[in-house]
Specification:
Elements lengths: L5 H14 L6 H4 L5 H14 L4 E7 L6 H4 L5 E6 L3 E3 L4 E5 L7 E10 L10 H5 L2 E11 L10 H6 L4 E6 L3 E2 L5 H7 L4 E6 L2 E7 L7 H15 L10 E3 L7 E2 L5 E7 L6 E6 L1
Parallel strand pairs: 1-11, 3-7, 4-14
Antiparallel strand pairs: 1-2, 5-6, 5-11, 5-12, 6-7, 6-8, 9-10, 9-13, 13-14
Helix pairs in contact: 1-3
């Protein structure tokens, strides 16, 4: 990464997002652009953004794609106080006017009550650090033409994060943890557009369990070095449970979980 200027690449990406313009992926324009360079760019964007980071979102939370993409773990990027909102009575509205080609993803969102210090491969140990969980919608957006990018491009471009809408939180009590360990890998989620079923997914789609995905995120951050570990108060959006689906203004999207005691969520999309 010695010949790569993260500040310059961050400035180019930041300008593309600010002006609503497409941009070629850094991996196609910068020789040697890898994950080390990408995290350096993501850090530059975080510090230049002017809004506080409130958590992290994950990408590529599916081991089946790691070999093809030459990944050894998932990747992540920050979320911000101006991109996260909370639903009221299970419903929210989101403007996509500034977005180029948004897509929606139903995910499990966690809030940490303390750092994850136990065995990150043990779902129960991970959940012991969780204050609450909720069903959420992450909205992603891509400035790269045709949605074509490498993992390093994903990281550098805010992890494609555009917004996170969080449903009603469910507090995680110690007595709940054994049941949650059993439910999180197998629960089902239904994704609907304007009342019609569009897709179905399962907790296993998030690295076999959203709790294990959270643990792998903590471990991956720890292995990278020089990166702030997950801390108390952080939100983590733990990977999509279905395929990403394009959204347009005027649509109403909803998600409901079966086999997991979390409230459903409805999102109206506006211009």
């Amino acid at each position: 990464m010695s010949d790569i200027d993260p500040k310059l690449i961050a400035a180019r990406l930041g300008a593309a997002y600010a002006n609503g313009l497409p941009i070629d992926p850094p991996s196609t324009t910068t020789a040697g652009f890898d994950l080390d360079a990408a995290y350096a760019v993501e850090s530059e964007l975080m510090h230049a953004r002017g809004h506080a980071a409130v958590g992290r979102k994950v990408g590529f939370a599916n081991k089946a794609v790691w070999r093809a993409l030459k990944l050894s773990t998932l990747v992540w990027a920050h979320m911000y106080d101006d991109t996260v909102q909370y639903a009221t009575n299970g419903a929210a509205m989101l403007s996509i006017a500034s977005m180029q080609s948004p897509k929606i993803e139903p995910e499990i969102v966690f809030k940490l009550k303390n750092a994850i210090t136990g065995d990150t491969a043990d779902a129960a140990a991970v959940l012991a650090s969780v204050e609450w969980l909720a069903l959420g919608f992450e909205v992603i957006d891509c400035r790269f033409p045709g949605w074509k990018f490498e993992p390093a491009d994903f990281v550098a471009a805010y992890g494609l994060h555009a917004a996170l809408v969080v449903g009603e939180p469910r507090t995680v009590h110690a007595a709940d943890i054994p049941e949650l360990v059993a439910q999180l890998p197998v629960f089902k989620v239904r994704l609907l557009k304007d009342g019609q079923l569009v897709d179905e997914g399962s907790g296993k789609n998030s690295l076999r369990s959203p709790a294990l995905c959270l643990g792998e995120l903590a471990a991956a951050i720890g292995r990278r070095g020089g990166v702030e570990p997950l801390a108390a108060g952080e939100l983590v959006s733990s990977g999509t449970l279905t395929e990403s689906r394009p959204i347009i203004a005027g649509e109403t999207w909803s998600a409901a979980a079966d086999g997991l005691d979390v409230s459903g969520l409805t999102l109206r999309v506006s211009a």
